[in-house]
Amino acid sequence: MKPPTPYPSLNAVLQELVGSAEQILRDNFSAAWLQGSFAVGDFDQHSDVDFVIAIEQELADSQVQDLQAMHERIYGLDTEWAKHLEGSYFPRSELRDYAESGRELWYLDHGSRQLERSDHDNTVVVRWILREKGVTLAGPHPSTLIDPIPASALRRDILETINNWGSQILTDPERINNHFFQTFAVLSFCRMLHDLHTGVVGSKRSGADWAKANLDESWTDFIDRAWDGRPNPARSVRQPADEFDFRGTLTFIEEVIGAANDFDTGSP
């Protein structure tokens, strides 16, 4: 069987994650997959490792307690990959239908040792990535557990995220005033605007290239600087954003919001 990633140490962490989850959940375990950058193809050695574990029914309190201990143990493994896991435990009945998006799930945030309740992964976009591009770690292919998602529904979800996240940033710009989040925001808004137009979820690289080709050419160098700023997030998250690019990011987000709302989300 082909390894899920090109990184042997990460594959070992994923094997530990899935094997331990199977032991804890037993009959409640259904499947495990990778989504995010490892599914769409723009990962590197600094990427988050986005997983979804499908479960037959909502976790019992005892299972949550055992999973908490498991994630604490895995976080302490002697590899940086163990600290990059991010994912959710998704009841199958909820996973299948994109109309069920929005409820909080048990979720492990990037860099965290403990599960919390969050709607972070309970979105149309995550279901689309899983169904169309998900990497199977255990169990059936995700397309057998997730109903097809119309492009119009995917576009509506993307547009809602552009508006909501953009509004949050513009209301409280300090939330992205470090090097990591400033560059992450630029590339994410490039990708979302591209995905809105194509009706499929692509990579940040393809989104950046599309934005340079389709937005005003004055943004080209700005987007290139954001791409060049991707490496070493553990260090860049502790660095302040470049003041010029920080101000530019707010203007860029305003432009993306305007362009997104001008687009017909009902387009085929």
Short description:
The chain is an alpha+beta fold. The protein contains 11 helices and 6 strands. The chain folds into 2 domains: 137 residues, Beta Polymerase, domain 2, CATH 3.30.460; 112 residues, Four Helix Bundle (Hemerythrin (Met), subunit A).
Form type: globular
Number of strand elements: 6
Q: Name the poorly predicted regions.
A: none
Give the helix tally: 11
Distance between the termini: 37 Å
Any guess at the CATH architecture of the largest domain?
2-Layer Sandwich
The biggest beta sheet reads: 6 strands, mixed
Structural class comes to: alpha+beta
Whole-number radius of gyration?
19 Å
Q: Which CATH class of the largest domain? A: Alpha Beta
Counting structural domains, the number is 2
| Major beta sheet, strand line-up | 5-4-3-2-1-6
What's the SSE pattern? HEHEHEHEEHEHHHHHH
Q: How much helix is in the residues? A: 40-55%
Structural write-up:
This protein has 268 residues and is of the alpha+beta class. The chain has two domains: 8-144, 2-Layer Sandwich (Beta Polymerase, domain 2); 151-262, Four Helix Bundle (Hemerythrin (Met), subunit A), CATH 1.20.120. The protein contains eleven helices and six strands. A hairpin with a 6-residue loop joins strand 4 (105-108) and strand 5 (115-118). The longest helix is centred in the middle third of the chain and has 21 residues, at 151-171. It is globular.
